[in-house]
């Protein structure tokens, strides 16, 4: 019963440990992948913004609005001029140089707008060459927001404004592609007049940002990341699982602010996470259980071997070696029993009968000792009981055992063998050998006393 209870508690503890390991692994893995995913998206947005800002800075440093004007013949993109066929030559020349340096990927989604010049330029001619006039006007109207932003917030310092311009990035439904777009914008400044005259834009769709992320390193499919544009209240999905964002299997795991106007939030889909990490989860659950099962089996075998090595095979009580394994300070007294006339019984009836006598004595000892007492076959026909009680109570127990053995008769066929024992009791002190010697002296005193009767 005790072993069964221990085994049950052990299995419960190991199971709890396994569950804790799975939880720790899950938390670590989700945190790691979530942090990595948000970092990829944040770095990507920062890179796109950096490219945009760099283009805006180049144009700002080269632009002369009041200089000569040219027809934009050397440009490969889509040009729109509202009411004029010319634009500042410095702008055309700089755009021509920049266009030759930029990669197709960088030019794919970028365009420039100068409201004061009535000028809009799309690097990607294939997509934007056939826009309607009102669509160009929509693009130019966005540029005017910089002026409004500056005035409404009373920030005449352009450099102060430059540091805050990222807040004008937004998410909306594009009228050309009809897709949800994140627009990143950077102001172009006339340095001579300290005025904002235009803007460089980069449009990134949900599909494009996913593709860019895939090129860097894929985000785990059980994580979905959304970018929420606070001013417009629009969500932009950076992964392909946002359609199930409200599922009960999704758990919010992170929220990061980007450029003040964007919240990057992330969720984990528990079902997909479990499926994707099934092998690791099963391993973490089973390994401790299997290891514990093996350990318990080994422990049982060791315990069994140890018990067998300390047990007398004939009487099933402890043998003499067991004396070295018990703490002597746990016992207060001991008693030594010796079978009277054991040699004549062996000589008369044989050793098999002698063995039965020893079994009978051991049976009486085991059935009369108190809880905590230990029965040991000391050798031959001698037995020892290590008693938890004092010498006086140990003596009473020994007398009870002696009387019980004397009253019982061993029947072997038609033979009736009378058995009796003598005993000696002593208190246990620091020297166990002395206690055994004292008890042995008492034992032989009794044996000699019985012989003289």
> How many domains make up the 3D coordinates?
2
Q: How many DSSP H or I helices? A: 13
Pick out the low-confidence regions: 147-156
Question: Per DSSP, what share of the residues sits in E-state strands of 2 or more residues?
Answer: 15-25%
Keywords:
alpha+beta, 453 residues, 4-stranded antiparallel β-sheet
Describe this structure as you would to a colleague.
The chain is of the alpha+beta class. The chain folds into 2 domains: 1-295, no CATH class; 320-452, Alpha-Beta Plaits. Helices cover 49% and strands 23% of the residues. It is built from 13 helices and 18 strands. Strands 2-5-4-8-7-6 form a 6-stranded antiparallel sheet. Strand 7 and strand 8 (195-205) form a beta hairpin. Helix 1 runs antiparallel to helix 9. The protein is rod-shaped, with a radius of gyration of 47 Å. Residues 147-156 have low confidence and may be disordered.
Summary, kept brief:
This protein has 13 helices and 18 strands. The chain has helices at 2-62, 89-101, 104-108, 125-128, 133-152, 158-164, 206-216, 270-276, 278-309, 342-349, 351-368, 391-407, 432-452, and strands at 69-70, 78-81, 87-88, 110-114, 119-122, 170-173, 180-190, 195-205, 223-229, 234-237, 250-258, 262-269, 333-339, 374-379, 382-387, 409-412, 415-418, 421-427.
Topology:
Blueprint: H1 2-62, E1 69-70, E2 78-81, E3 87-88, H2 89-101, H3 104-108, E4 110-114, E5 119-122, H4 125-128, H5 133-152, H6 158-164, E6 170-173, E7 180-190, E8 195-205, H7 206-216, E9 223-229, E10 234-237, E11 250-258, E12 262-269, H8 270-276, H9 278-309, E13 333-339, H10 342-349, H11 351-368, E14 374-379, E15 382-387, H12 391-407, E16 409-412, E17 415-418, E18 421-427, H13 432-452
Antiparallel strand pairs: 1-3, 2-5, 4-5, 4-8, 6-7, 7-8, 9-10, 9-12, 11-12, 13-15, 13-18, 14-15, 16-17
């Amino acid at each position: 019963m005790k072993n069964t209870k221990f085994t049950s508690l052990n299995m419960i503890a190991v199971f709890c440990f396994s569950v804790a390991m799975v939880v720790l692994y899950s938390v670590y893995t989700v945190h790691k992948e979530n942090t990595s995913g948000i970092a990829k998206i944040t770095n990507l947005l920062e890179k796109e913004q950096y490219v945009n800002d760099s283009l805006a800075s180049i144009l700002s440093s080269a632009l002369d609005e009041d200089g000569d004007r040219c027809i934009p013949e050397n440009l490969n993109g889509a040009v729109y001029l509202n009411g004029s066929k010319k634009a500042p030559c410095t702008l055309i020349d700089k755009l021509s140089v920049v266009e030759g340096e930029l990669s197709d990927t960088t030019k794919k989604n970028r365009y420039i707008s100068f409201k004061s010049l009535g000028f809009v330029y799309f690097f990607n001619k294939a997509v934007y060459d056939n826009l309607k006039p009102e669509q160009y006007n929509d693009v130019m109207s966005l540029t005017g927001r910089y002026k409004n932003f500056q005035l409404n917030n009373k920030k005449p310092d352009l450099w102060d404004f430059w540091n805050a311009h990222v807040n004008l990035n937004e998410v909306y439904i594009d009228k050309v592609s009809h897709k949800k777009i994140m627009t990143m914008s950077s102001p172009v400044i006339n340095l001579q007049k300290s005025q904002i005259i235009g803007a460089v834009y980069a449009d990134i769709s949900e599909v494009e940002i996913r593709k860019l992320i895939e090129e860097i390193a894929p985000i785990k499919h059980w994580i979905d990341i959304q970018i929420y544009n606070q001013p417009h209240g629009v969500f932009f999905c950076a992964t392909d699982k946002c359609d199930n964002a409200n599922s009960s299997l999704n758990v919010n795991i992170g929220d990061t602010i980007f450029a003040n106007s964007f919240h990057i939030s992330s969720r984990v889909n528990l079902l997909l996470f479990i499926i994707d990490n099934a092998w690791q989860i099963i391993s973490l659950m089973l390994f401790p259980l299997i290891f514990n099962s093996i350990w318990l089996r080994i422990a049982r075998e060791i315990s069994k071997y140890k018990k067998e090595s300390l047990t007398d095979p004939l009487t099933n009580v402890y043998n003499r070696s067991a004396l070295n394994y018990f703490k002597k300070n746990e016992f207060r007294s001991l008693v030594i029993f010796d079978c009277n006339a054991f040699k004549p019984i062996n000589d008369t009836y044989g050793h098999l009968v002698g063995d039965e006598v020893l079994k009978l004595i051991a049976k009486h000892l085991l059935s009369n000792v108190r809880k905590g007492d230990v029965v040991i076959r000391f050798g031959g026909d001698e037995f020892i009981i290590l008693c938890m009680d004092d010498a006086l109570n140990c003596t009473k127990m020994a007398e009870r055992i002696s009387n019980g053995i004397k009253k019982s008769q061993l029947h072997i066929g038609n033979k009736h063998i009378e058995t009796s024992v003598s005993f000696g009791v002593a208190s246990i002190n620091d020297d166990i050998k002395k206690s055994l010697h004292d008890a042995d002296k008492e034992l032989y005193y009794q044996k000699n006393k019985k012989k003289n009767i």
